[in-house]
Amino acid sequence: MTTEYDNVPKAPATAKVAVGKSNELVNAVYRLSLVEAQLLHFCIAWSREQQLGLTTDKPLRLRVSDFAERFGIGQNNAYQQTKDALEAMYKREITMNSTDPQTGLEKVTRTRWISEYSYVDGAGVISVIFTPKVVEHITRLERAFTSYSLTEIAHFSSYYAVRLYELLMQFKDKGWRTVSIEELRAALGIGPTEYPRIANLKARAIDVAVAQINELSEWKVSYQNHKHGVRITGLTFNIRKKPVKEAKPPKPQLMDDTYVTRHARPGESWPDARRRLQQAWDAGINYDQQSELFEGKS
Predict the structure, then answer these.
(1) CATH class for domain 1-154?
(2) Where along the chain do its domains lie?
(3) Taking the mean position of all CA atoms in its chain, how far away is CA 145?
């Protein structure tokens, strides 16, 4: 029997689609698990792939198998992990700080990620409706937004890598970004009592994130400490795109003894013939190819 879930379009597994978030949302204070962050990014990219747009009244429908395939999640656990992620995102809060246009004072807005979600066990499809504030900042905005490829973050295994990547992509054209330790903690969702020592914060979060970005993306990241006395108060991250590696031409086959015998000159000793032919070979001269060329012209 055909159901409405059979008509949900299938996502291409390797599409390089941009994820768009307003910079206000990127800088917002929130915490997600890795699977929750992956699901959020997949929803954003999927809506853009299908040119569906996000609304506050029409649910976005996705196949769990597509989500699992895109992020390399085992199919056996994908459905339960997706349900758990939806439940957690339904409960989680986001805090966004901005400037009130009328008073010029700081404005604090608190909202949630999703207002409604549904699933049918056995159908393998989920439906999600994001809250109005989130929709406002996810959809294509005329103001500045951060855009990056879903394939760039698909292989990150650390949520901290995903968040740091987002924060740094805002400044990719500038090439660097300076943040205080307090700002970085808030952005990564790390409380003041979690990893209280800066050495632990680096080892468990920052260095892990930087290592994954450097290994799995097209960007190279490093950072320097900023100190007030002996205390580290901030970091400056340097961001640059990795140079494109030129494909090396295939190595030519080795010159063997048969080749030397075939092209030795009359009266030429074996060592002299091999030395002469080796020099020519190293210079890119292959007498077999030249012979074929002349035979073709005859």
Answers:
(1) mainly alpha
(2) 1-154, 159-246, 257-297
(3) 16
Architecture of domain 159-246: Orthogonal Bundle (1.10)
pLDDT in tens, the chain (298 residues): 445 544 544 544 444 444 444 455 545 546 788 888 888 888 887 777 776 677 888 898 988 998 888 888 887 888 999 999 999 999 988 888 788 888 989 888 888 889 999 988 888 899 999 999 888 877 543 333 345 566 777 788 898 998 898 889 888 889 999 999 998 998 888 888 899 999 999 999 999 999 999 999 989 999 999 998 889 999 999 999 998 776 555 545 566 778 788 888 888 888 888 888 888 877 777 777 655 444 444 4
| Strand spans (E) along 15-73 | 18-22, 60-63
Q: φ and ψ at 175, to 5 degrees?
A: 95, -5
Same fold yes or no, 1-154 and 159-246:
yes
Q: Which of 125, 96, 124, 105 is nearest to 29 (CA)?
A: 96
Residue 146 Cα to chain centre, angstroms: 13
Question: Taking the mean position of all CA atoms in its chain, how far away is CA 169?
Answer: 10
Rounded CA-CA distance 118/128 in Å is 7
Q: How far apart are CA 158 and CA 137, in angstroms?
A: 24
d(CA 298, CA 18): 57
Task: Count, in order, helices (H) and strands (E) of the chain.
Answer: 13, 10
Residues linked to residue 95 through DSSP beta bridges, in sequence order: 29, 110
